[in-house]
Write a structure and sequence with these properties.
This protein has 161 residues and is of the alpha+beta class. 63% of the residues lie in helices and 14% in strands. Helix 1 runs parallel beside helix 3, helix 2 runs antiparallel to helix 3 and helix 3 packs antiparallel against helix 4.
Length: 161
């Protein structure tokens, strides 16, 4: 499988899993209240009108956040098209799929649907969704791939001197 196909497959999977779980969350009347799954995890329906952790909520309209997100996805798609590494392709695919799923939420609902609420005692992490997890995992892989590339370049430079 080519890196491009792998990246596109990861984008489709991230998008589909996120949209599927959001559809389940939206159909559940009990999530409006909050459902404890584990002592550290609740499921709760939240509408995020901002970006990560609700930042810029109310500052930028949903359509502006959508335009910015689509511009970023276009840049990442061009990068994916040229990617040589399978790790880089997976990373970009995860970010693209997660971003597009959140864009679809903004277009359909004017906000992103979040439902995962991790907490310790009374301290709650901001609610998030599987698209957010895909974006974070993709960003982490991008960092690791970059560090791996720097290590490889340093080894080549050391060998040639």
């Amino acid at each position: 499988m080519s890196g491009r196909a792998l990246g596109l497959g990861c984008a489709v999977a991230a998008f589909a899993f996120d949209q599927g779980t959001k559809a389940l969350a939206l159909r559940s009347a009990t999530l409006a209240e909050s459902v404890e799954v584990l002592p550290i995890l609740n499921l709760v329906l939240v509408r995020n009108r901002g970006i990560s952790f609700g930042m810029l909520g109310g500052v930028m309209p949903w359509w502006a956040l959508t335009v910015v997100s689509l511009a970023i996805v276009a840049v990442l798609a061009a990068w994916l098209w040229r990617a040589q590494s399978r790790v880089l392709s997976v990373a970009l695919g995860l970010v693209i799929g997660g971003a597009l799923s959140n864009v679809l939420d903004r277009v359909r609902h004017g906000a992103v649907t979040d439902f995962l609420d991790f907490h310790f005692a009374t301290h709650h992490w901001p609610a998030f969704n599987l698209a957010d997890m895909a974006i974070v995992a993709g960003a982490a892989l991008l960092l690791l791939d970059g560090l791996r590339g720097q290590k490889r370049e340093a080894a080549i430079t050391t060998q040639s001197t």
